[in-house]
Amino acid sequence: MTTSPRRYHITTFGCQMNKADSERMAGVLEDMGFEWSEDPNDASLILYNTCTIRDNAEQKVYSYLGRQAKRKHEQPDLTLIVAGCVAQQEGEALLRRVPELDLVMGPQHANRLKDLLEQVFDGNQVVATESVRIIEDITKPRRDSTVSAWVNVIYGCNERCTYCVVPFVRGVEQSRTPEAIRAEMEELGRQGYKEVTLLGQNIDAYGRDLPGTTPEGRHQNTLTDLLYYVHDVPGIDRIRFATSHPRYFTERLIKACAELPKVCEHFHIPFQSGDNELLKAMARGYTQEKYRRIIDTIRRYMPDASISGDAIVGFPGETEAQFENTLKIVEDIGFDLLNTAAYSPRPGTPAALWENQLSEEVKADRLQRLNHLVNIKAAERSQRYLDRIEEVLVEDQNLKDSSQVMGRTRGNRLTFFNGDITKIKGQLVQVKITEIRPFSLTGE
C-alpha cells in the first residue's frame, strides 16, 4: 500500500456481537500500524462488518460497497474487506458479485485478521469462511467507549430457530473459559472501565460445551456460576449480560442477579411471538406461558427490574388472532423496550421456503400497530422514574446539547442532565428525574 500513514475505517451493522468483533478487529489493525479515519473516503482500508439478520441490513451493505468499489478503480491501493455474517453467508459468491473485494471473512475469523491481511498484501484475494475453533484473543480491542465495554463469553449458537440465519453464519457454540473472561475484565478494571456487558448470541447456553459436572448433575460452568466468579473484579461497578433465551433462563440465574449488587436489574429476553403455535413453528422451545412465568419470577425477586425483548410480526402463516396474542403479551407484561421487526426470509432457513408467506402490506400494518403499543407501554413504564433519584453511570456528552451529559440507569434507561463531562465521565452520579419519555429520561 502506498498511503502513509495507513488509515482504516470500519462500518458496523447489526448486533452487539458485531460491535464487539469490530472493536477487536480495530485493535488488530492498530497493532499493524493503521490509524483510525472518521472519513471512509480518507481511508486506505475499508472494512464492513455485516449483518444478515434481515434483508434490508444486507442490501445496505451492497449499497455501501458499490460506492467504494467504484473508488477502487481510481485508487487501486484501496483494500476492501467484508467481514461478519453476510461474508459467512455468501462466501465466494460475494467475490463474483463485487470482484473488487480483497477479503471476505466470517465472524469466526475476526482474530485472524492480521494473517489474512498479510495474504492480501502478498497479492491474493482471500475468502475465509471455513468453520474453525475460535482461539483465545490476545489482541487488545480498540474500544469505542472508555467507560463501558463488551466482553464476549460465548460465540456461535446451537439453536435452530426456523427463521434465523445466525447458527449458519456464526457457527456452533464455543464458550471461553471463566479464567480468560475474568482476566479480560481485570484488565478493563485496571484501564478505568466501570461497566462490562457479557455477550453471547445465546448467553444462557454459556458453559455447556466446557468440561465438568457438579455433584447435582448440572454443568460445572454456567452463566450463573460465571456471574459469581467475576462479580468481585476490582474497578468494575456494573455488570450486564445479553442476549438471553427463554428456553434456558432459570430461577437460579434470577436469584443470582438479585443477590449480586453489581449485576444490573435489566433483562433482555426475546419472546418473538405471543402465540404458542407460532413459537412451535419457530422452533423456539418454550411457550408464552413459560415466558410469562420467567417475567413473573424476575419481578418477584426484583420488582423494579427493566425488561426488554425482541418480537417478530408477519411470520409465515401468522393469523390476525395469532398477531393479537403478541399484542396481548406486550400489553400484559409492559416492556421497557422492545425491538420489533417484520419477518424477513433469510437464505438457508426453513421458514424462507414455506409457501404461507404473508404480504409486505400485512407485515407493515402489523409492525406499525405493534410499535404503537410498544411506545404506549414504554411511556407507562417510564412514569415510575418521575421524581425518583436514579444512579446514572456517566458515559459521554450529549451530542445534541453540549451543556448536558448522558448516561444510563441500572435499568438501562438513557438519561440526560446538565454537567461537565470532563469532571464526571465514568462516575456514578445520583440524578433526580424531572422529565420522562418512552425510552429516555432527563434529570438534575
The biggest beta sheet reads: 6 strands, parallel
Helix content: 25-40%
Structural class based on helices, strands and sheet pairing: alpha/beta
What is the radius of gyration?
Answer: 22 Å
Low-confidence stretches: none
Characterize the overall form: globular
- Would you report the number of β strands? 18
How is the largest sheet built, in terms of strand order? 2-1-3-4-5-6
Distance between the termini: 51 Å
Strand content: 15-25%
Number of DSSP helices? 14
Mean pLDDT: 91
Q: How do you describe this structure in short?
A:
It is built from 14 helices and 18 strands. It is an alpha/beta fold.
Task: Explain the overall architecture.
- The protein has helices at 16-31, 55-74, 85-90, 92-97, 113-121, 166-170, 178-190, 223-230, 251-259, 276-281, 288-301, 320-333, 360-382, 421-424, and strands at 7-12, 35-36, 45-50, 79-84, 103-105, 126-128, 148-155, 174-175, 195-200, 238-242, 266-268, 306-313, 337-342, 389-397, 404-409, 414-418, 428-436, 440-443.
- Helix 2 (55-74) links the parallel strand 3 (45-50) and strand 4.
- The strands form four sheets. A six-stranded parallel beta sheet has the order 2-1-3-4-5-6, sandwiched between helices.
- The longest helix is centred in the C-terminal third of the chain and has 23 residues, at 360-382.
- The mean pLDDT is 91.
- Helix 9 runs parallel beside helix 11 (288-301) and helix 12 (320-333) packs parallel to helix 13.
- It has 444 residues and is of the alpha/beta class.
